[in-house]
Each structure stands twice: as structure tokens, then as C-alpha cells.
């Protein structure tokens, strides 16, 4: 009888061990064009899939569109950079929780030299552009960069209108190329500019202003609003990108190629 129960226990152990694991769902990551065009996601996403077995489809759009994808359940997790909009997204019940991931900064690029004293004064630079009618190319796509640009015009008490102000409705890389062709100014995140610098004649004309911080956040989409969302896998991505190992990778990305990191990790 004792042998019988030992055999039964072995059968149970073997059966349990051979039982197929619950399959992992692929996830959609809605993110900004800057995280894709800098090459960051190409560098780290394959490592996440290798480590967890979760496949990731990256959809790079403006932050506004990424948030809309979260609202409609067309994305499982967001990596975006418009903090006020992200917090509203969570407050409205569309996101589980928002976490800081990393930051870099915005810079103003152009051809024309600015008057002395404006190299660290973005509001003064915007006033100069408006007063002189110098060509400015706006993202015009409700992205995080576009939201920041509009906030800066508002803070400078300027409504940008006229032939000098061009709304592109395109991603950051295309806008940089457009500004380069037109010898215009544009606002860009530093990372995308550095990743394309060798292809452009544009130079940084304003940087390191207190108004130019560019913070990125990660949010798992709330399945209470959209039951088709894959929260378990999305949460694994959130935990992974906030982990010490991934934060270290983010902090090292770009150093070899550009002599400086393109993003500064700051998860807590």
C-alpha cells in the first residue's frame, strides 16, 4: 500500500510538471516617436522578450495618440512624455498607475544665431522668433513635444500664427528634416536630435533652460475600462523597465555613440 501511494505521488508530480504553462499574451506598447527613433527600444525590447517570453509590438506615435490608444484598449502599456496628461489618464481610470522612468531635455535647434543672452532662455528665444517672423516648424501632432511647445508659447504670452509658423503634423525625425531643409527653428527632444545630428545642419541654439525638462512615464492600461487589455503581461513590462538592471541599460544607452546618455533613468 505504501508503494502504491508513493507511485501515485510520483504520477501527480510528473503530471503537474508536464502540464502546459498558461500561454503569455503579446502586448502592444504605445510610445513616442522619440523612444523609437533614438534606437532605445530596439536596444532593450528584445532583452525583455528574451527574459520574459512576452512579445511586444511597438506603436510609435505622438503622446496624445498613444493616450487615445490606451483609452480605446488598443494598447496594453504606454511609455510617453506629457506628465499632466498622463496623470489625467490615470485619474480618469484608464491607467492603473503612472511611474517615472527616465528623462532628457528639449532643445531649440536652428540655423540663425540668437541675440546674446538667449542661449539658456527659451521664452526669450520664442519671443525673438515671433518678433522677427523667423520660420518655426511645429510638430502639430498632439505629441508630448507639441504639448510642451504650446505650453511654452502660452507661458511666453504668444499665440503663434502667421506664415512663419508651420504645423507639420509629423514625427520628430521628419520635423527635424523639414526644419533642416527650410533653415527653420524647431523644438526637439535632445535624444532624437543627437541620434540624427550627423544628417543635419541644424545646431542647438537654446538648451539647459528650466522650462525644457522632458520626463517620461510608464503606465499599464486598466482592464476595468477595456477587458481585452493584457494587464499581467503589461505589468511585467512595467516592473521590468523600472528594475535596476533595465534602468542601468537606459543610463548607458547612447554613451558609446554620442559621448553622453540619451536618457537619464530616474525610476524610484
Largest sheet entry: 8 strands, mixed
Uncertain regions spanning at least 5 consecutive residues: none
Strand-and-helix sequence, N→C?
HEHHEHEHEHEHEHEHEEHHHE
Q: Tell me the domain tally.
A: 2
Named CATH topology of the largest domain: D-Maltodextrin-Binding Protein, domain 2
Specify the CATH architecture of the largest domain: 3-Layer(aba) Sandwich
In which range does the helix fraction lie? 40-55%
Count of strand segments: 10
Question: What does the model show?
Answer:
With 268 residues, the chain is of the alpha/beta class. The protein has two domains: 26-104 and 215-265, D-Maltodextrin-Binding Protein, domain 2 (3-Layer(aba) Sandwich), CATH 3.40.190.10; 105-212, Periplasmic binding protein-like II (D-Maltodextrin-Binding Protein, domain 2, 3-Layer(aba) Sandwich). The protein has twelve helices and ten strands. The strands form two sheets. Strands 1, 2, 3, 4, 7, 8, 9 and 10 form an eight-stranded mixed beta sheet that branches. The protein is globular, with a radius of gyration of 23 Å. It starts with a helix and ends with a strand.
Short characterization:
It contains twelve helices and ten strands. The chain is α/β, with parallel strands linked by helices.
State the main characteristics.
two-stranded parallel sheet, 268 residues, single chain, 12 helices, D-Maltodextrin-Binding Protein, domain 2, 8-stranded mixed β-sheet, alpha/beta
Amino acid at each position: 500500500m505504501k508503494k502504491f501511494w508513493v507511485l501515485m505521488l510520483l504520477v501527480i508530480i510528473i503530471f503537474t510538471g508536464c502540464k502546459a504553462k498558461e500561454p503569455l499574451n503579446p502586448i502592444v506598447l504605445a510610445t513616442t516617436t522619440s523612444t523609437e527613433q533614438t534606437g532605445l527600444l530596439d536596444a532593450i525590447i528584445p532583452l525583455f522578450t528574451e527574459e520574459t517570453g512576452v512579445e511586444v509590438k511597438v506603436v510609435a506615435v505622438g503622446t496624445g495618440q498613444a493616450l487615445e490608444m490606451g483609452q480605446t484598449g488598443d494598447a496594453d502599456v504606454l511609455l510617453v512624455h506629457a506628465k499632466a496628461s498622463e496623470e489625467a489618464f490615470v485619474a480618469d481610470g484608464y491607467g492603473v498607475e503612472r511611474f517615472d522612468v527616465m528623462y532628457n531635455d528639449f532643445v531649440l535647434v536652428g540655423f540663425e544665431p540668437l541675440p546674446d543672452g538667449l542661449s539658456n532662455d527659451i521664452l526669450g528665444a520664442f519671443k525673438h522668433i515671433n518678433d522677427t517672423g523667423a520660420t518655426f516648424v511645429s510638430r502639430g501632432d498632439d505629441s508630448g513635444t507639441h504639448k510642451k511647445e504650446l505650453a511654452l508659447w502660452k507661458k511666453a504670452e504668444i499665440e503663434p500664427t502667421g506664415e512663419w509658423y508651420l504645423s507639420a503634423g509629423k514625427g520628430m525625425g521628419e520635423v527635424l528634416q523639414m526644419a533642416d531643409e527650410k533653415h527653420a527653428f524647431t523644438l526637439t527632444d535632445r535624444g532624437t536630435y543627437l541620434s540624427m545630428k550627423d544628417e543635419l545642419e541644424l545646431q542647438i541654439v537654446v538648451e539647459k533652460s528650466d522650462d525644457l525638462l522632458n520626463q517620461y512615464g510608464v503606465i499599464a492600461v486598466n482592464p476595468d475600462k477595456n477587458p481585452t487589455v493584457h494587464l499581467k503581461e503589461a505589468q511585467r513590462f512595467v516592473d521590468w523597465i523600472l528594475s535596476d538592471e533595465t534602468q542601468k541599460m537606459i543610463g548607458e544607452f547612447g554613451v558609446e555613440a554620442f559621448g553622453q546618455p540619451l536618457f537619464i533613468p530616474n525610476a524610484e
